[in-house]
Write the structure tokens for this entry.
Amino acid sequence: MSILGVELFKGERALVTGAASNIGRSIAVRLAGEGAEVTITDVDSRRLSQVADEVAKVGMVPRTLVADLSDKVGWRTVWEFVEANPPAIFVHSACPPRHEKDTPLSVSEDTFDAMLNTNLRSGFLLGREVASAMRQDKVAGRILYVTSLHATEPRNLPHYSASKAGMTMMLKELARELGPSGVRVNGIAPGAIPGGGFSTSEDTFQPKRKIPLGRFGNADDIARSAMAILSNDLMGYVTGTTLVVDGGLQLFNWIDLPST
């Protein structure tokens, strides 16, 4: 299942959070197909088990862990699970569900906290522990954060957009600190991926008409690009940046906010 016919990550350990989700699942499966020994984690035990079966079909049986990164100690549970054999590749794809009702004037405190705890707090603290192990072991490690176009463009979901904006600066801070140790830190910003927070029905909330390449993206579009940016052979001189994978969607202010 290797994209280039040569396993890019043969024998390397990889950790993927949010692995039961659309994009997280595809990244985990692709990593296994490229020879990585994958550990996957998510809050959804049923879907995580299904992804484990998919990963096993293209690689070795993955290690799995059910953990809630919206909890302040959730990240520590994940780190303790991998600490004895830390990963050379860490992908932070975990993100709570988004609901259109959670607008600037209506989002609850608990919903706001869960989003920032998952995306920012857990993403940073878990990433820092992983990176410290990479540096100590002198591993040319890679950390990838799944961010968003809404790190820079409003989404009418302030907790989501703010967390992704913070994530973008967080990865830059880590990249600058870790670069001298040979650890690369980047982001990947998906475009309109069905199942990733918008409806694909023909309604007023319809971005497809503004995608220059003329189609919605899919999770594997993101996963394939993730393989490239994670590969030290293909993109070993890239750190501190965010790769936008959106079919050109960022060329438009594409969100038509609901009228109510």
User: Anything to note?
Assistant: Strands lie at 13-17, 37-42, 63-66, 89-92, 142-146, 184-190, 242-245.
